[in-house]
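[recover] target loaded
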């Protein structure tokens, strides 16, 4: 796959992982894990499904006689043991409980548990990402910027958002805190929290879904600076000219990535 395809796949993986983690709750909450999203992650990571009794078991290595084995239930436990052992612990028959040894296993599984819940999701997420080649060169980044310009010119909002999401991934940008949110805009930017809990947002890219306009505010703005926040809102509303706009906004994002290319490439 191309770098762009791999990057979009990573964004999808991260989104699925976040969806699963958001669905995890304490036992008393009654919340159910998003099994379909977790299945997608497991399949991407190359885990093989094996059904035993009423259990859906996912093996990291289908040919192995031992774990890692993830049980797809609300606990999302990954075990380092055999399939047979997991089955006895998680779904015992009455005959299994005749053995004192098995009863001990059922009551205490700490000796074979690797991870649970969010930690298990993170482990599978990293296994998914490990299958991707995320190395890139300057032409890869230029091609993404070109796609952004073309989508903007053709008023293809989904394409613009997709490109902005790719730059968000590459630059470590984040959705805006509430004070910087703007209706009918897709906004992403650098977010920093100072020692005094002051939020600083920017540089920030703002795409108006209603007007199909793209702009960049290239300097950080403090949430505590009322005048700067008002300026930010005026730019977003089109009441004041943006420092960078149109195709130049994508050029800014491209150059921002290329400035940190060695760090990104090393991180994979």
């Amino acid at each position: 796959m191309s770098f762009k395809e791999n990057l979009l796949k990573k964004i999808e993986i991260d989104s699925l992982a976040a969806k699963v983690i958001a669905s995890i709750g304490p036992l008393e909450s009654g919340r159910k894990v998003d099994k379909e999203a977790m299945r997608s992650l497991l399949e991407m990571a190359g885990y093989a499904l094996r059904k035993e009794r009423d259990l859906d078991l996912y093996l990291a290595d289908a040919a192995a006689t031992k774990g890692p084995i993830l049980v797809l239930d609300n606990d999302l436990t990954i075990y380092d043991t055999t399939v047979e052992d997991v089955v006895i612990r998680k779904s015992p028959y009455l005959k299994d409980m005749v053995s004192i040894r098995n009863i001990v296993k059922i009551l205490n599984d700490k000796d074979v548990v690797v991870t649970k819940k969010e930690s298990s999701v993170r482990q599978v997420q990293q296994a998914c990402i490990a299958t991707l080649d995320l190395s890139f060169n300057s032409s890869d980044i230029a091609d993404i910027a070109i796609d952004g310009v073309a989508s903007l010119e053709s008023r293809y909002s989904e394409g613009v958002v997709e490109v902005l999401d790719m730059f968000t991934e590459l630059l470590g940008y984040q959705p805006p805190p509430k004070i910087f949110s703007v209706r009918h805009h897709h906004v992403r930017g650098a977010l920093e929290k100072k020692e005094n809990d002051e939020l600083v947002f920017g540089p920030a890219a703002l795409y108006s879904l209603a007007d199909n306009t793209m702009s960049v505010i290239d300097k950080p703005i403090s949430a505590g600076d009322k005048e700067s926040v008002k300026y930010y809102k005026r730019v977003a509303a089109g009441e004041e000219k943006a420092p960078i706009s149109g195709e130049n906004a994508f050029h800014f994002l491209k150059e921002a990535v290329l400035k940190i290319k060695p760090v990104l490439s090393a991180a994979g």
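[recover] notes: The chain has a mean pLDDT of 91.
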